[in-house]
Structures are given as structure tokens and as C-alpha cells.
Amino acid sequence: MIFLSPLLLAISSNIDTLSVSSSYGTKKIYLPKSSMILLTILTSISLFISMYIGRLIQPLFGFKLDNIFGAVLLSFIGLSFIVEYIRLEQKHLGYDTSYFYISPMRYKNILENPIIVDSDKSNHIDIKECFNLSLAIGIDNFLASFAASITGVNIGISVFFYFILSIISVYFGYYNTNMSLIKWFQEHSYFISGTILIVLGIYEAFV
Known about the structure:
The chain has eight helices and no strands.
């Protein structure tokens, strides 16, 4: 069972990557293989850093309390993702969403509308723009991977799973031509990711 938690974390963390790459594929924005590889490497490094920070802080909570704290934090993050899914659904339907909390941080805008990364309107994601995209994904995944690490989720296995799934997510998202599947996934990405994190949090609370 040592592989289950790292796998769930890797799947949840790659939802952003899959959603973003599929946006570029549908909008015909060129994402060269060099940028794909760089995106995979940089986001994997960011996952490692956030989990390593969590592991450094873990002893401060003491035995057992670290597991509970991390599990509760994971579940809370998952719940916030589901709330964000509800906000976006209501926004798309034309309802007033002003009573929802909206993060002022720019990375949220990038993930909600990845096209803005292409700042020069060249329809080409270059190295610099890829760095900005990787940073946005890394920041969005920071708290979840940080919390997972506090509960004791294996860092090495998590990074390995994340790297492999990231490669698959980028290529599948960018080259997939099933528009109905892409649209459905983009609309439900926050719900999927949030549900996985809640499941991970509950699981970690009892292991």
C-alpha cells in the first residue's frame, strides 16, 4: 500500500498539467517538445521541493499529530478545489459569483485561462513562458504535496509517479483530438482533483 498515496497525489497534481496542455492543443498553440520536457522537469522539481519542506517541518508536530494535521489539510485543500469547481460552474452559467473567495494571485488566472501565458501572442509557448507556466502549476500544487509529505507519503515514489504521469498528461492532453472528452475534463478538473485529495486525506488519517 506504500504506492497508493504517492499515486493518488501524483494523479491529483497532474490534473492541472493535463488541463493546461489540452487547452493549448484545442487552441492550436504550439507547445514544442523542448517546452513539454522542461514543463515536466520543472514541475517535478517543484513537487520535490514542496514535499521536502513538508518533511523538514514534520518533526515539529510530533508523533501522530503530524499525520492528523496533514490529513486534515489535504481534505481542506480538496474541499476548496470542489468549491472552486462550483464557482466556475456558476460563473459559466451566468450566475453571480461575487460571494465566492477569488485568489488575487496571478497563477490562478494562468490555470483558469492558460492562453495568457502566451504573452507575445505568438501562438508558441517558448522557454520563458514555459517557466511561468511551470511556476503556476508548482504553486497550485504546493500545499497539497506539502501536506502529503507531512503525513509521511514517500517523497521519492511520489516524484517518480508524478514525473511519469506528467509526461503522459502533457502528451495526451496536447495531442488528444476528442473535443467532447477535453471539454468535459476541463470543466470537471477541480472536482476530480479535489475529490482525489479528500480521499487521500481520509486514507492518510487512518494509516
